[in-house]
Task: inverse folding
């Protein structure tokens, strides 16, 4: 239990003036007057203003491997509350905007490296000469929904504004196929897997070679991300690239082209089907991709309308999102009765109810467990092995950089042999997570300051680059 030096009731008048919750304001004053506040703030700043930091307790000792001399020691006993706070690492912007920003940045570099090449990420720049497209595969229709067609008026007769909450909701909820929608979401990962199999077959057929010969001459690489449409259906965006037999470091065969890849993607999407047997309440179904398949060539150096940077930024944007566009929640629903307590749109509520209703009829599909995701249970971003680097490798590079910084700051020697010149003995235990109300407000403020500094630095770099280009 948190003890406040000033009660929430005592600060209520001030809270009303500044527009703050009395409990939060009272706790904020407690935190700001606690010994070690500056160190606490430094910890939070080092996490990037993480919304839900992990608390650790423990110690670490660095010794000279040969002499046993203690070169550095650290213990959380001297930290505020006896804890060290580290970033949660959550990819969801709805959970932690700060960590999601880092995740989006990693995804951007991962996708961009597969488009433009990056020697630091083991992808040669020659991939820019390989056939590359940005493909979007969508879900089929489950019934008419409110939308903004090119004609300007929805089928309901209304010209919906851009942020109208009615967009994406069913025109006739009684006739909308909510069961089909959540079953499609639930099997979307399987549809994608089959698509990648058929894609290789279609490429081989158009090249006039066998699938075995295709493996020996060409490799299909991709990086993809899932996005929820407002109607609550998943669709996939993917960068698809043709390489030589040994991956991005080898040139694709002469027959490989953007046109061939475009045709193969459309043909493969049309062939994919997943059949579901009939159940007590549901007829047998054949799940397929929607008819709206979009394939666009990715331009090099602005030669095409869809630039390399735009594609990477678009994919990174959706890598940190889930089903927020539908108004659902970002946590699991423990039981169906809980749904009555949630403030969510009626269309989304029906999709969640459909997950719970169908859960026992489709054992093993975990529809109720993933009801908050409207049945979708796949990964939001995936890539083929040879597309580019991995998120793990990018995190390790960042960790190595920070470790090198800390060694320099502490005067520790650099590793100079296979066994290493130092020995690190550490013991850490989990001690909780999160912030108190006042800490949450301060952490959010720190996160905003960090984001403002990033945006300011980006503007300065852009102005400098524009100036240098003009002088050149």
Result:
């Amino acid at each position: 239990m948190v003890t406040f030096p000033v009660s929430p009731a005592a600060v209520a008048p001030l809270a009303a003036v500044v527009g703050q919750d009395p409990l939060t304001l009272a706790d904020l004053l407690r935190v700001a007057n606690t010994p070690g506040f500056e160190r606490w703030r430094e910890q939070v700043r080092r996490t990037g203003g993480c919304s839900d930091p992990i608390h650790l307790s423990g110690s670490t000792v660095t010794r000279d491997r040969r002499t046993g001399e203690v070169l550095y020691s650290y213990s959380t006993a001297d930290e505020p509350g006896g804890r060290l706070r580290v970033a949660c690492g959550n990819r969801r912007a709805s959970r932690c905007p700060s960590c999601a920003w880092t995740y989006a940045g990693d995804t951007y570099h991962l996708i961009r490296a597969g488009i433009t090449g990056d020697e630091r990420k083991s992808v040669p720049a020659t991939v820019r000469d390989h056939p590359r497209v940005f493909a979007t595969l969508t879900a089929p229709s489950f019934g008419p929904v409110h939308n903004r067609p090119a004609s300007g008026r929805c089928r309901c007769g209304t010209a919906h504004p851009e942020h109208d909450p009615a967009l994406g909701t069913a025109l006739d909820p009684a006739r909308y196929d909510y069961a089909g929608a959540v079953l499609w979401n639930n099997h979307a990962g399987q549809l994608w897997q089959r698509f990648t199999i058929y894609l290789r077959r279609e490429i081989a057929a158009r090249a006039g070679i066998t699938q075995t010969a295709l493996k020996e001459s060409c490799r299909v690489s991709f990086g993809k991300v899932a996005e929820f449409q407002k109607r609550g259906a998943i669709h996939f965006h993917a960068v698809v690239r043709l390489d030589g037999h040994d991956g991005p470091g080898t040139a694709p065969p002469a027959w490989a082209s953007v046109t061939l890849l475009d045709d193969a993607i459309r043909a493969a999407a049309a062939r994919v089907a997943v059949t579901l047997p009939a159940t007590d309440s549901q007829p047998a179904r054949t799940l397929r991709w929607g008819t709206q398949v979009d394939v666009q060539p990715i331009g090099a150096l602005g030669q095409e309308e869809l630039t390399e940077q735009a594609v990477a930024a678009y994919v990174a944007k959706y890598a940190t999102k889930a089903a927020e566009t539908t108004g659902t929640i970002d946590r699991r629903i423990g039981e169906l009765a809980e749904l009555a307590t949630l403030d969510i749109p009626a269309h989304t509520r029906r999709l969640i109810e459909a997950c719970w209703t169908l859960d026992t009829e489709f054992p093993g599909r975990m529809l109720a467990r993933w009801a908050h995701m409207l049945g979708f249970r796949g990964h939001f971003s995936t890539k083929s092995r040879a597309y580019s680097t991995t998120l793990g490798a990018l995190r390790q590079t960042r960790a190595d950089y920070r470790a090198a910084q800390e060694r320099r700051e502490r005067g520790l020697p650099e590793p100079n042999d296979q066994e290493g010149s130092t020995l690190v003995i550490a013991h850490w235990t989990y001690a909780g997570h999160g912030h108190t109300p006042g800490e949450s407000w301060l952490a959010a403020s720190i996160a905003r300051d960090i984001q403002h500094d990033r945006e300011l630095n980006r503007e300065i770099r852009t102005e400098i680059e524009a100036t240098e280009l003009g002088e050149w």
Observations:
- The radius of gyration is 27 Å.
- The mean pLDDT is 88.
